[in-house]
Design goal:
- The structure is a homodimer.
- The first copy, chain A, has about 500 residues and is α+β, with helices and mostly antiparallel strands.
- Chain A folds into two domains: about 300 residues, Bira Bifunctional Protein, Domain 2 (BirA Bifunctional Protein, domain 2), CATH 3.30.930.10; about 110 residues, Anticodon-binding domain (Rossmann fold).
- The first copy, chain A, is elongated.
- At the A-B interface, strand 1, helix 1, strand 2, strand 3 and helix 3 of A face strand 1, helix 1, strand 2, strand 3 and helix 3 of B.
- Strand 2 of chain A pairs antiparallel with strand 1 of chain B.
- Chains A, B: It holds the Pfam family HGTP_anticodon.
């Protein structure tokens, strides 16, 4: 028998592009998602948790000839049975493709229209980069089967409520609404209707850059081309300056109020039926949200919203945080978008052949968490535990009784479970746990019926800043009767918060 | 160019062995997990959410020569770079293997001991069966780096608190504790120490069947063999009746109280150092939980707990629900186990070579949910929304204003977003949504400044059971002033709950 080779030790590493979340990172996100779910629920949306694994077929990726299906997903092939090859399965890459599958599969049992929300991880098989992970959270709400723009208006007001619920103050955000149909109308008046193909696509792609290059940049790109910041020359679409006018007029048609903006848009699409319909829809959305009490300080018509105009078929919305932050280079800039969505009408057509209207929104969970952190709104519900130290390892029962009392009073508490020999290690442990309070009961204290309670937060402050006088005036360690354990700890915790 | 073949429509189906969760199924589980997280947090455990994807290497599955690694997991190979083949990745199959990887990877930053809890889906590439899914939830708590059985005692009291917190009444459950070391002691007294190999393994495997075959069955299996219920003969281990005695004595050593049980165990392991150590540990656990106020009505020493004795290295615990249910065949039986765990000391050794003690528990999320459903304790926080019907599609703004008022008062409400032409469809929709109340405002009502509010729950009851007299006495539809919308809806909802 060949000598067995000893297997090398495995590497303890997350796969590239994946990460772990610890403590507050988990609970803060859970807390935020729970608040969002509360708002969605109030709007009549039902929770849906679809399987993380879908058939590649249902996800809408098509198998190429090669072994590996679409490179953008994590996919594998099931074992086959006899001659029959196994299905290709994949991790979901978003929450919309699974919604389409779920709706097609269960449409006979689901209410119509179907309002659903979904929260959970999605996976992308992409090259990871700094801050770019291959597993991340999405949080979506969609209404399937409602053709009325009342459904879109509702998504907008829900988005506004959601942002305020999680802690973004009114005035610090804006839900901006545009409509693909208005753009279609503009293109129609330019002679670039659906059939115009390449030119139309080039114009759509150019519009998508409005966010970055602004009005002058879009004008250059639509006509003769543009020298970008890196010095590269980007070819233009080749329109004349006059031909580019309507597009620029559309993008910059925002006026001081909704009425003004709508009038500008009406002028820009005159003669196009689809364009007029788009403006009518925007007008109705503005009316409906106003009827619910949402003014332009929360939701506004803004034709400069271009993100997703190429993908969506009707109203498009984006939630933007308007306060300023400093970017990594120290420059001030607006925080920017944290959610986006719109109307798309081919949700389940792939499965059933039937066109089903749908509209929805997706919140960027990590970006919104970052915004809340920026604003100091992530007051974690979790604080470090009270640590009961172990002075005498034979009296573990006494220490366990103390933590039980504290927990029964609703106070987070633990007994030190490491080797108790070195007391310094116990205090270092309490420090690592960000413990607010330590409890000490040695043999001497036990005999006297008392315990020592250390206020670790105050202790740290004093150690850092206090003068000797202050230090004397503000003791951070208290000797109290054993029976006063819970009362004294509670008093200290209340003083800290 | 060859004519392109039209792709057939994809099937709208979850992959075999996977499922979707709708509405209350999601929120009830979330609510239960949130309560559990609250208890874990109070005990000083920190949340950990590790990546769903691990390297096959880290998971502890070894690549065979063939293409596909271990068949028990869902695995795939990353694209390689140049000559270097890509890593094999896999979905985690439990929450313990990732804990080992996380602890080994981050041990320098983590507190020591490290108490962590984790909740989330895990995936098993197994043949699906009725009620057996390939994706399901686990909910674990573990303490890494604490050798003291105080850590085990703490897990037991935490498990007790957890069950009561989610709604299992005291008296309806029992946390039972055993210890692998005691069994080792028994085997040692029989001459079956670690080196005895095959015989010892056979005895361990037999003990694992004690739950199913009982004392007489174990005795048969340890000696000459047993005819099982299906008529098949199972070979015995081949011990003599006298040799089997100590094992049976161990399994049946439970007495009327902990002192009695411990005395029986001490007799069973006399002369074995490891056995005596095991009994001492059980005694200490009993003392520690008693010091915290947990009596034998909640936590008890029970040597008949055998599940996992083969896997764990020290204390073993199991939470059993003691109330009776009817099984699928109409027979009464105890609900049984909903959680189990124990001490295992080789958690991170694979990665670091260093032995790190660990102890923990895993709650069977689906089984515990089933138990709560059985006990009627899953009072879902989610009820159907108030449905504001659409009588006049041009006045959508009026209806949106109503739902906004209701939501601002914290009441779940939605406007009907389907085609409003057929009013019957709107009521059918409200029915499907399990809506408690419908609101109606036609042109006539609008002119008179009133609205109609229908109590749908009462309406359904009346339709089912009431006599004409009762029907007259208990109207289920009310005409109220438009301004009283919120007050009246709230009154009806309060009457229903």
């Amino acid at each position: 028998m060949a000598k067995q080779k000893k297997a090398p030790r495995p590497k303890a590493e997350t796969p590239k592009g994946f990460r772990d979340y610890f403590g507050a990172e988990v609970t803060e996100r859970d807390e935020m998602l729970r608040k969002i779910a509360g708002v969605y629920n109030r709007y009549g949306f039902d929770a849906l948790e679809s399987s993380a694994v879908e058939t590649v077929e249902a996800l809408g990726k098509f198998l190429p000839d090669v072994e590996r299906p679409n490179a953008g997903v994590f996919a594998w092939q099931e074992d086959g049975e006899g001659e029959k090859p196994g299905d290709w399965l994949a991790l979901r890459y978003d929450l919309t493709a699974p919604l389409a599958r779920v709706y097609a599969q269960h449409r006979n049992e689901l209410p119509m229209p179907y309002r659903r929300f979904a929260m959970g991880p999605v996976w992308r098989n992409e090259k990871p980069g700094p801050g770019r992970y291959r597993q991340f959270y999405q949080c979506d709400a969609d209404t399937v089967g409602a053709a009325s723009v009342a459904a879109d208006a509702e998504i907008c007001s829900m988005l506004s409520d959601t942002l305020e619920e999680v802690g973004i103050a009114r005035g610090d955000y804006l839900v901006r609404v545009n409509n693909r149909k208005v753009l279609n109308g503009v293109l129609e008046t330019m002679g670039l209707s659906d059939e115009a193909g390449a030119d139309r696509d080039a114009v759509l792609r150019t519009i998508d850059k409005f966010d970055k290059v602004g009005e002058a940049g879009v004008r250059e790109l639509l006509t003769t081309g543009r020298l970008d910041a890196s010095g590269a020359f980007i070819d233009g679409v080749g329109l004349s300056a006059a031909q580019a006018d309507p597009v620029v007029a559309f993008l910059t048609s925002k006026a001081g109020d909704a009425a003004g903006t709508l009038a500008n848009l009406r002028a820009a699409v005159s003669g196009s039926a689809i364009g007029v319909q788009g403006v009518d829809e925007l007008e109705l959305i503005a009316e409906l949200v106003a009827a619910q009490g949402y003014g332009p300080d929360r939701i506004e018509i803004d034709p400069s919203v271009v993100r997703g105009l190429g993908y969506y078929t009707g109203p498009v919305f984006e939630a933007e945080l308007t306060f300023e932050i400093f970017d990594e280079k120290g420059r001030k800039r607006q925080f920017g978008s944290v959610a986006g969505g719109g109307r798309y009408d081919d949700l389940v057509k792939r499965f059933t052949g039937q066109e089903v209207p749908a509209t929805g929104v997706s919140i960027g969970v990590d970006r919104l968490l970052a915004a809340l952190r920026e604003k100091g709104r992530l007051v974690s519900a979790v604080r470090g535990p009270v640590v009961v130290t172990v002075m005498d390892r034979d009296r573990m029962g006494d220490y366990q009784a103390m933590v039980a009392e504290l927990r029964n009073a609703g106070i987070r508490a633990e007994v030190y479970l490491g080797n108790p020999k070195n007391f310094g290690n116990q205090l270092k442990y309490a420090d690592k746990r960000q413990s607010p309070v330590a409890v000490i009961e040695g043999g001497d204290e036990k005999a006297r019926g008392i315990i020592q309670i250390k206020d670790l937060i105050l202790g740290a402050q004093i150690a850092e800043t206090a003068t000797l006088e202050e230090w004397k005036d503000r003791p951070s360690q208290f000797e109290v009767a054993r029976g006063d354990l819970v009362a004294k700890v509670r008093e200290i915790l209340e003083g800290q918060s």
